Amino acid sequence: SSLNNNTQTKYKSTCSYCGVGCGVEITKIDNGKIYVEGDKDHPSSKGMLCSKGMNLHYTVNDKSDRLLYPEMRFNRNMPLQRVSWDTALDRTAAIFKAIIQKYGPDAVGFYVSGQCSTEEYYVINKLIKGFIGSNNIDTNSRLCMSSAVVGYKLTLGEDSVPVCYDDIELADCFFVTGANPAWCHPIIWRRVEAHKQANPDVKIIVIDPRKTQTAAQADLHLQLNPGTDIVLTNIIGRILIENNWIDQDFITNHTDGFEAYREQVFSRTLTEAANICGLAESDILLAAQYIHESKGFLSMWTMGLNQSVVGVNKNLSLIDLHLITGRIGKEGNGPFSLTGQPNAMGGREVGGLANMLPAHRDLLNPAHRDEVQAFWGGTKISDKPGFTATEMFQALADGRMKAIWIVTTNPMVSLPDLNMVEKGLQNAKFVVVQDISNRSDTVKYADVVLPAAAWAEKESVFTNSERRITFLPKVVDAPGEALDDTEIIKRFAQKMGFGESFNYQNNSEIYDEHCLSTKGTNIDITGLDYDILKEKRSVQWPYTDNQTSGFGTRRLFTDSKFYTLNSRAKIHAVPDENLSEKLSEDFPLILTTGRIRDQWHTMTKTGKVNKLNQHIAQPYVEIHPKDAQKRGIIEGQVIEIESIRGKNQVKVKITEDIKEGVCFMPMHFGKILGNAFGRTNSLTNTLVDARSKEPDFKFSAVQIRTYVKP
Length: 710
Ligand code: SF4
Description:
single chain, Phosphorylase Kinase, domain 1, Rossmann fold, Dimethylsulfoxide Reductase, domain 2, 4 domains, seven-stranded mixed beta sheet, six-stranded mixed beta barrel, 25 helices, globular, binds iron/sulfur cluster, oxidoreductase activity, nitrate assimilation, metal ion binding, molybdopterin cofactor binding
């Protein structure tokens, strides 16, 4: 939708950074440049934007880093050379065909991104699973939300965020755990802050080993030891039970599993739990009391729970608190996972992960596989789950996979154990990188580089953290020969011989097919298409074809009926041990990683905005004064930080905001941005949660010492 006047055209869209999904109004100026402001009419953000969103136009207007035409090299000793689209895609198709013929379809794979649109996810997923015949598609959302996905499925029967953002203003107890929304989901946090300001009785509990900006605003900051989250949530469960602060009717009528849960949480005393967590008993009691006294108990979490070798258990034990108190499906109550990326939710909708099928269908369910195969009209869908994010690069490193196609993500900065990732990329027979920017560290490992259209250069759809689906219009043309990502995949599919099934005239047709694929599922959006999205601006799923008069579904489970077979939610008895990497004499410190306020992911976009770099421009490590003193380290000094996988040198920030024995590094820095030594993820480990396969970025064993130049 656009409003014309003489010199400018306005478009409504959504921010392309985090999963808050703020509405933006884009003004296109006559000279082809754009300007971005908050969209006052967007229900998720009501006109607000954070520092990253406010500066979005710089990333589109500054094209200096853009990939402009396809490039290719015949061997790794040659530089990349400009070629035509046909040459690049002919060669890619020829090599994919040859590898598939020799080694089978599981020798190739796609590694995609929560920044891909729903349509892009949909066509890539369809191509690899339905036509190439492998389930080797995974996404950087694996690094982000996959523990929450499994947590929701095991408790509620479906990957379904039950709440909406309007629950913020209806809640009076916020349980923010393993998250720093003040920096990482700023507009959600601004809504919490405004609500607290207007209602001083609102309680904010923050659980984090670091005193973050979010923790600084808490009524109660539980600065627990890393890895002890389950001990804490379980003991809060025990306190709620002991004081009869639970909802027995809800437990009896709508849940299973309470007795085993009770036994589990009673296996520790409060004193024991407080000791393990490094917290005062009185503070834990107070947290339980705040929950009990509230009318609206909203828990918010992100990577502190998800990015863990026991990430699923952390999710289960948190959701348990909602189930034993019946605080779900009611205004202002519920578990609320905050999504990291703008369309990670859309990727989950289309099943763009190694173990999923469209519309949250299950790859391991033969009926679901048959249903999807019939719908796509392609080859038989393999019953073998594909490689997940870290597994893909391990498989490239040891030769089980031969070719990888990386779309809109920068694994050479973002994956754990970058030396392993590098080995994978170097060992791969063929690497395709489809992206917008030469600021990605991954591009230089490519045999073929495919330039793609960026945000605002193509029509697409994103779904945000509250299941809100928003249409993103095309505002400007992509530079050079860059193409819409769906067009790239369509052309490749044609060259592979699958053209008929990818013969879409536009992205609207792809979206229609996606909507149709959801028919009869819990995430049914058969009532949707581009026209409705353009007219209504945004709706929340489910949105069935009977729902065309409204804006979809704000809140799930209002009837206390869950998506499990017997409609009852499952309370889980969760063991509380942490299976993270063990500390040792050589590596006695815990390294945890996270985001900083004004950077996003691997900085390929935010890193080119001067205003954003002014906040923090260089990698650093935070350590506690006692740990610094023990090592004779002073503020601002360059230190060496080492894990068993690698080492690097960064400046030190000494602060009491972090627990003794713990250190923190921002995750954003790679070699291109930052410095040669600032690659945070050279240090992190590849341990993953057994069920979600999400890596344990929050707990790596490291040592820090003064650095002496060789
Ligand atoms: Fe964009 Fe997230 Fe900031 Fe909103 S909160 S403007 S979606 S980065």
